[in-house]
Predict the 3D structure of the following.
Amino acid sequence: MTGATITDVVFFTQQQGVFEEWQTDAKKCIRGQPLQRSWHQFTSSDKKFFSGIWEAEPGCWNIAYTENEYCHILAGKSVLRDTAGNEHALNPGDQFTIPAGFAGQWEVLETTRKIYVIYQP
């Protein structure tokens, strides 16, 4: 890629992003049907790399990752659980990567907001 300038750099604090809001798919829900929101900030020209901010209200649903995702929890409390029942509490400041192939549950205990960076091979 050539010709990118400072105007092509995405500063999350300086732009709203493309807002989207949706109810979690009822077929995936274990408890509740949480409202989710995102403020999409960037998509690469090959449509394989994405970043933005995501937020979800309390509830629990099944997840199955085909993408690799880096997350930085900004607010709230959640629990990430694998299919064997192993879990990890997620709190503000936590930074982690979920690899493609991961399956389990995402449980939001308190409305959670995160920065996401996704690579979809």
Observations:
- DSSP finds no helices and nine strands in the chain.
- The domain at 19-119 is CATH 2.60.120.10 (Jelly Rolls).
- The CA atoms of residues 58 and 96 lie 21 Å apart.
